[in-house]
Every structure is written in structure tokens, then in C-alpha cells.
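Protocol step 4 of 5: obtain the predicted structure for the target chain.
Materials: sequence only (see below). No template structures provided, no constraints applied. The aim of this step is simply to have a reference model before the mutagenesis design in step 5. Sequence pasted as it appears in the construct record:
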Amino acid sequence: MLDRDLAELYGVETKMLVRAMKRNRERFPDDFMFQLERTEFEGLRCQIGTLENIGRGKYSKYPPYAFSEQGVAMLSGVLRSPRAVAVNIEIMRAFVRMRHIAESNKELAKIVFELRSFMLKNSNKIDHEFRKVWDAIEKLSAPSENKQKIGFDLGN
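Step 4 output (C-alpha cells):
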């Protein structure tokens, strides 16, 4: 996550978040946090669109810092406000959900790959079996010619 996004979530100015991080630099090794390269920053600015000319300090002239999951967790020790702690808990939960989604996609991809491999090896047999299933589905979905009345016949 970028420093400005975290600052917005925590309800602080980006420069205050960066200042707190720099004061506690030993808590943020390179795998917890890094500053984007100038070219990455320029590419990011191009994706965001044209910057408004609203005055000084609105947009950073320095490349932003990017924080990993561990870096975000470390911020809760640096930013001690109740809001920072509450937001940090929610961010950690989001990271866990994202990890679960990524894992389930890996499982699904593995299953699809195995199914594809099986189908390629057994294409003739599978075609025949799918035809039988398709025929059964068509028979079940076809309108019945022998319609029986449902309910009681009261002689009316």
C-alpha cells in the first residue's frame, strides 16, 4: 500500500506518516517498506491523470513509499492513535482475505489444469459420456406429452 493511501486511512497527513516512519527507520527493513523509483513514480502519476493546480503541498514531488503487509503492521506501533490501531486491524484482515482468495484461485487453477489434462487424454470416452448426460438433460427439460392433473377431481 502506498504512503498516501495509508495516511488517508489513518487520518493523518502523508508527511506525518513518513516522518513517523523515518524516526523509527529500524522498524522498517527493505522488505517491509521501500520508496518507489523515480520512473515508477512518473508512471504512477501518468496513470492517475492530470494533476490539478490547487496550490503548494497538494501533491508530493517525491516518490511515495510502498508498504508490505508487515510494514503496515509495523505502522501500528509507530502511529499510536486509536484510529490507527482500528484501521490497522482492518487492513490486516483484508490482507488475510486476499491471501485466502489467492490460495483458492491456486486450487481452482490446479483443478482446471487436471481436468483439462484428463479430458485431453480421454477425449473419445468423455465425448461419449457428455453426449449421454446431454441427452438425459434434454429429456428432462422437454415438455411432457402425458400431462396428468394434479390435485383432487371434485367432479366439476
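Step 4 remarks: Residues 105-140 form one domain. The mean pLDDT is 77.
Proceed to step 5.
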